[in-house]
Amino acid sequence: MARASGDDRQREPLSRQEIVRSALALADSEGLDAVTVRRIAAEHGVTHMALYWHFRGKEQLLDGIAEYLFAQIEIPPAAGESWDRRLLFALSAMLAVLRPHPAAAQLTQGRVLSSDAGLRLTEQFLGILREAGFSGEQSAVIATQLFMSVIAFVTGHPGPSRLDDPEGYEAAARTRTALLGALDQARFPNVTAAAAPLARCTEDASYYDSGLELLAGGVRAMAARLPQP
Amino acid sequence: MARASGDDRQREPLSRQEIVRSALALADSEGLDAVTVRRIAAEHGVTHMALYWHFRGKEQLLDGIAEYLFAQIEIPPAAGESWDRRLLFALSAMLAVLRPHPAAAQLTQGRVLSSDAGLRLTEQFLGILREAGFSGEQSAVIATQLFMSVIAFVTGHPGPSRLDDPEGYEAAARTRTALLGALDQARFPNVTAAAAPLARCTEDASYYDSGLELLAGGVRAMAARLPQP
DNA sequence: ACCTGAACACCGTTCAAGT
DNA sequence: ACCTGAACACCGTTCAAGT
User: pTM of the entire structure?
Assistant: First the structure.
């Protein structure tokens, strides 16, 4: 990934895209703390001030990562489908994009309304919710809460990613399981009994299936209580 | 809040509690970035290395903040109540504690299972969910997702807190509303129509009421699909 | 037991300057 | 247009030392 500074004396100019992509790769492999102006610059064989020509500051660089993630979310067109199936598709599309980037997903949390792709996503969710019969205000509230929840499902995934570092992931999961299992059974009967699922429940697809069911079921329940038009 | 270094020549020794409390106050008033070993130390009229006697490092200090927050969550005893009402009480209790600390709440996200008070909370949620008929595995998954969602509802609250800085809050909300309202109405019909609720929906209690309804409704829907015992 | 002083490696940002 | 060099203020951490 790193571009040695010696092997290409005539480097082509950086682009915002390249910078954002290497920042995202850094977040994926070493976490958000590793996303540093200086380290990103080093990846490109450039001094760290070079990035300030492309971004006004680090905050704008992080905005760029969030925008990049939002832009990848493609909600499949499903014109003939019911609103609740379309909602499920939309939530799945978000999860599919964010899951590989548990560290960087954090950056999307406060940036939905300040990125173009985030606004496009919001627009689509509002459309689905309006179709379900919710008012503009209700749709705004529910869309925000769905975004926050989906993002949190992904960022809540602790430690190293299973995809990037499977053996590191395994070791961390085993350690957590052992710690939970060793707790006082009198004080924590349910925790000790469910030590393994608690420690590793975010690892497999069923975790996200359950999350989608929780959210979609909640929205359906709220829709069912709406006054009939 | 700051303790001048001159006014008490015989300072009583620091305690972890005091350090954690001033760190939390700093997060509340200026955000997580302001929570700095050096600034906390200055609040107490002490050099920054003094904190290293009380904490092994900054990470442990942040653990302390999370622990402190979890410890304040008191789920009311409600022995005779149905499981879904007790679930609602438990979620409300979490929200009540976390809402005043939108910045610091972020710290609780990955620390539920590594803090004593977080484990106590987990135990109580698992108890409620087991009573609803979910298996240990299902309860672990759902409890985790409920935690993540509630925390995200609070941390998603952008900008300055309404309680700590009402006029700053108002100004930020107005700016966001104006920005959303000025978007292209052809591309963003629903966003522009709901500009105000989108920009400020996290401000009032109904936002959190809606969030609780969403989550509780989702869990009820999942419980309703369980095979009858 | 509780805190200080000096030192270190690292960070984001500014500003003038180079090509 | 695109990048460098030097400088600055700030950060977390270590380690030996003080009381």
Answer: 0.94
